Automatic annotation (TrEMBL):
It comes from the Eukaryota. PANTHER family: CYTOCHROME P450 (PTHR24296). It comes from Linum tenue. This is Cytochrome P450. GO terms for molecular function: heme binding; iron ion binding; monooxygenase activity; oxidoreductase activity, acting on paired donors, with incorporation or reduction of molecular oxygen. InterPro entries: Cyt_P450 (IPR001128), Cyt_P450_sf (IPR036396).
């Protein structure tokens, strides 16, 4: 089936949709025997619920996926059993709090006002002067990378600005993700040989790992120094100034005890990577598709604008040009 897939790469999403529709929502793809391209694709919500929720323990990732995703380390996406549960519990303890919600809304408002809206305004103002073409997915990936770094690490790499700068840690993240896709598509001996020789995609991946890990480890060590300084002063910010990385380090120390000095920093780094993977591309790609769908469905756009028109009324009864909704306001019973 590989030739048909290659032929439709430029139209992959529509091609996959047609195939899935023709086969009732679930399809077994068969690749050449010398590749690693046998897989099952499903868009059936019942199947998805069964695999990821109802009977999750029956679908381990296994050692093959763990080896493929090794450049990211032991992240939650390639671990099973007790290790997976431990990572999941820690992540939920960090984000299922009022302090994190406040941090999320504060950071989101800041990045909207300082980055995303100015970039889009800049493109719109220059449209009549010859046109500015934006790769919306690139814009959204830059936006979500800045956002996740601010939430997780407390620093802004400033990927998103009108100059669209090159940011080494963000580029390293992209290289690693592309290398993981590459590993899915070739026999294991191919990428393992390249890894050993430091050539091809694997050569790039080794350098990308060093760059990304160095970036994260530096920030973690800085936070450890900050933590010790606060402890010596008896200073505790509480939830009023929520620091996710600090909370993660404290929780990891509690979990590991004396083992933290040998394994703790690696665990913290891999947990941060898990959250970066979850918080960057998933949201960026979903937003890109959302705006594409809105742009190609004027009826839906009109309904969205009508709904927003009702929601942007201020307490004085007047309309406001811009409004950032609170965490609670994003949940409406009639939406």
């Amino acid at each position: 089936m590989l030739p048909s897939l290659l032929w439709n790469l430029s139209n992959l999403h529509d091609f996959a949709t047609r195939i899935l529709k023709a086969h009732g929502g679930t399809f077994a793809f068969k690749g050449p025997s010398f590749t690693n391209l046998d897989f099952i694709v499903t868009s059936d919500p019942t199947n998805v619920h069964h695999i990821v929720t109802k009977n999750f323990s029956n679908y381990p990732k296994g050692p093959e996926l763990k080896a493929i995703m090794d450049p990211f380390g032991d992240v939650i996406f390639n671990t099973d059993g007790d290790s997976w549960k431990t990572k999941k519990d820690i992540i939920l303890s960090l984000i299922k709090t009022a302090g994190f919600e406040r941090l999320l809304m504060k950071t989101l408002r800041h990045k909207l006002a300082s980055s995303l809206i100015p970039v889009l305004d800049h493109a719109a103002r220059n449209h009549d002067d010859g046109g500015v073409v934006l790769d919306l997915q690139d814009v959204m990936k830059r936006f979500t990378f800045d956002l996740t770094c601010l939430l997780l690490l407390g620093i802004d790499p400033e990927c998103l600005s009108t100059s669209f700068p090159r940011v080494p840690c963000a580029e390293a993240f992209d290289v690693i993700e592309e290398a993981i896709v590459y590993r899915h598509c070739v026999p294991p001996w191919v990428w393992k040989l390249q890894r050993w020789l430091h050539v091809g995609w694997e050569g790039k991946t080794v350098k990308a790992e060093e760059c990304l890990n160095g970036f994260l480890e530096e920030r973690i060590r800085e936070k450890m120094v900050e933590k010790k300084a606060k402890e010596s002063c008896g200073n505790d910010d509480g939830d009023d100034n929520y620091d996710l990385l600090m909370k993660l380090i404290v929780e990891t120390e509690r979990l590991m005890g004396d083992c933290y000095s040998t394994k703790g920093e690696k665990f913290v780094r891999e947990t941060v990577v898990s959250l970066m993977v979850a918080g960057r591309d998933t949201i960026a790609v979903a937003l890109s598709w959302f705006f594409w769908l809105v742009a190609t469905n004027p009826g839906a756009e009109e309904k969205i604008l009508e709904e927003l028109d009702r929601l942007v009324i201020t307490q004085t009864g007047k309309k406001t040009f811009t409004k950032t909704f609170s965490f609670q306001e994003t949940y409406y019973d009639d939406i």
